[in-house]
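fwd from M.: "can u put these together and see what the complex looks like"

so here's what she sent:
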Amino acid sequence: MNRATIAILVAVVLLPFVVRPVIAAEIWLFAIFGLGLNLLLGYTGLLSFGQGTFFGSAAYVAGWLLKHYAINVFFALGIGIGVGALSALLVGYLCVQRSGLYFIMLTFALNQLFFFIAYQWTSVTGGEDGMPGVPRPALLGIDFKDPLAYYIFVAALFLISLWIMKRIVESPLGRILQAIRENEVRAEAVGYNVARFKLLAFVIGGAFSGLAGVLYAMLFGIVPLEAIGFVSSGNVVFATLIGGSGSLYGPIIGSFVFIWLSESMSVVWERWPLLLGVAFVIVVLFFRGGVVEAWSRFWLWQSSRQKA
Amino acid sequence: MGNLKRRNLLKLGAATAALGFPAIIRAQPKEVVVLGIWPQTGAFSDVGPILDRGMRMALEERDMKIQGRPVKYVVRDSGTQAGAATRRVEEAVDGEGAKFVIGPWSSGVALAVSEVAKRKKVFHYFSGGTEDISGSRCHRYSFQWAASPYTAAKTVVDNFMKANPKARRWHLLVADYAFGWSVEKYIKEVGKTHGLEFVGADRHPLGEREFSNYVQKAAANRPDAVAMINFGLDAVSGAREIFNFGLTPKVPLIMTWSSGVEELVQLTPEIRENIWVGSNFYYTADTPVAKKFVASYQQKFGNPPGYAPSAAYGMTRMMLHAFDKAKSVEVRDVITALEGIEVNDLVGRMRVDPKTHQTLRPYFFMRCKPKSAMKHATDFADIIATGDTPLPAEYAACKDLGGF
Amino acid sequence: MLYALMGLGLSLITGVLNIPNFAHGALFAIGAYLLVTTVGFIGNFWLALLVAPLGVALVGLLIEYLGIRRLYAAGHDYQLLFTFGLALILSEGIIVIWGPVGFSHLPPAILRGGVDLGFTFYPKYRLFVMGAAGLLILATWLFLEKTRYGAIMRAGIENKEMVSLLGIDIHKLFTAAFALGAYLAGIAGALTAPIRGINPNMGVDMLGIAFVVVALGGLGNLLGAIAAGLLIGIAQAVVAAYWTEASTAVIFAVMALVLLIRPQGLFGIR
């Protein structure tokens, strides 16, 4: 087991004692969301600005079924992953035909459309009010209403997701995606069907996003409108970039930083989004690899000082 | 990538933990922790600070003590988002030990917060447009301070018609969400008794900024009066556009559910001419409590309080009355004491209906003054009537509050 | 008309610098706030209308010089993050300076009231804005088409390498383009202030629409942006007559459609 894994396991165990289990759970599920996005952003070089579509759709569908049909937890998770993947298939199919700024704008525009549908379809989604009353059914006799129990559940799912994502990026698929990121034309020339691989990345990313969405709905007992909107899509992109999109662990760090910032800062100063903006600017200008890069640069500097 | 990064991550992990997340400040067992969940960022960020003021003033009147115990007043940002608000209320309840929640400001977020209150079994008081808190989503832990949309509609329509008996053709401009629809429904109901003809009713999405199309449609119907059922910036934008297109001051504009000062201050005297305003509070209200509050607020902050700070102040005061009556700081005792309480407070005679948790109290109806009649910069309007007809039983959607 | 102005400014920036400028909405808002403040200082609306956008252009210049300049090679995600962070800083900064409460600003006395057009009563100030915006667009277009500097900018959209090979300082070009784009946003904001009022979030909606205009018109296609802006304004009015709630959402649907079917925009050629 490498050091990073140890660090993460330590964090998983210690976190609920440092912050409320609810916040801790949110950090891990947001990290799952980020992992999904980063497959597209960091590994394939596709900036999808509409991940909220998959996150939110999964949350709504699973939330609806949980609320009205009292499905069990496994089924809910399955639905979440499925809806996430399916919506990603649809959106991805439309989007992979474009690239660059067009691609970004298209993911954004489609996200807005889904947002509009959720906003209008008040009988199902509750529109602006959101969909409250999402239950957290017990699993195998374990009562998930206990925040710690649910936390363990979310953290376990996170670890599994991380392991799966690690296998994906280290596999030939992962390498192909990175090749596409580096030079799409060459990848095509070598014989890979670039569009199809991009679509695959979308679907996997969507599945992860969907899982995160269901966990979110069950965590807060509500599916708010912003889950499917720009807030959601934007937050996950910014968090991942801040953590560092160049690393597998970037989204995890980003999730920590982002949720910690927005929670602790909001208590201190109402104008904290300004600090968030400053953080973005600093990251872009100086630490493009995000926190991960900042940390390794700091470490390099430290070790070079020791040598001298 | 490679070994360097992996090794560093271990250290990063440790450092992150050491950085420490917000410390868990456990309330002293004797303290009473009250939470104000106010919008400090997002669409309603202008209201957050003044809501805080109102609540704080009410608590400070008691020297931050309830039943001899110190009060810890905690504020959190609802962000005008249901998800963020839910998260922060839970964090305050779990982390700070908050047992009494007042807020938020927007109806949608309120429903989410109400759910948390029910789940966490904490006291919750809200002032806002949604009927559901004392209606279809009612439960034992949430209370509604603002007048029922029915009371508002009746006060507005009855008194407007008294002053303008010939204005029978009305055009409605409604914000497209549950609150807007309920007020629209009641205006039409009450309107029937006055023989009103609704020549048009348009719905606009929340946050609409481009009102020109709606105004032109309204103008085309040649109404005798335009009634807007919306709030905050939407109302301000709508009123401004209605003036720009020349509807007012010829045709009266009714702002059915207004913040009063907070909205009117964003307009100019020219725009305000011939605007009639219905509101849950106006600062010239003639009650001893209101007079004292307004004087104190004005002295501290320079301008008169509108609906927002008065609602926060009013709710906190009602809660304090309940504490007094219950002689206890337990959530259940306070709730039971609040149910059926009758006091003369901020807006006059106020009573909490034990069956629906709706606060029955007067609703204000004002007429804006033309520039020449304004005695000072904030002399926007005169109160011409109040009304407190409660929601008739046949409309009541709250069938059973349930237990604890 | 205003949509066309915003779209033109954004199209210029995205075309020349190839950067998604998420701060464009904030620049719009600053234009409005600066107008009101300037009128407060000097008391003359017309003068303020000239001066305020220059302030915004200055802000744009600083942004480009201090920040964006370093990001040309950085890739869209970082440029996006940067401009978005900037947007946050600017809009929260507005609240810090001017407070969170919005306000109204009446148009200058001559332009108050309206004109009876027979079928409808139309505010004089809106007519003025249409005219002013139209003139501005014409002036910008003439600048871009007929002057040497304009030609350089257009060439910069087409082919940056060629332009720098021809010995023209590409950095100055970018700074100028950004400043001009910012100016257009600023004056759009200043013109809008009496119509829509001034509040800290006013830039947010405009930003979305600006991007849609750019997408419809074709990235970098300036004439296209103008045409698209007009089209969207008309479309919004038409849809509002039938399905009012959808009028804003329809815009995004159209954007998605165009991007899918004809990514070079309705009027693009490349």
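replying to her w this: The radius of gyration of chain C is 18 Å.
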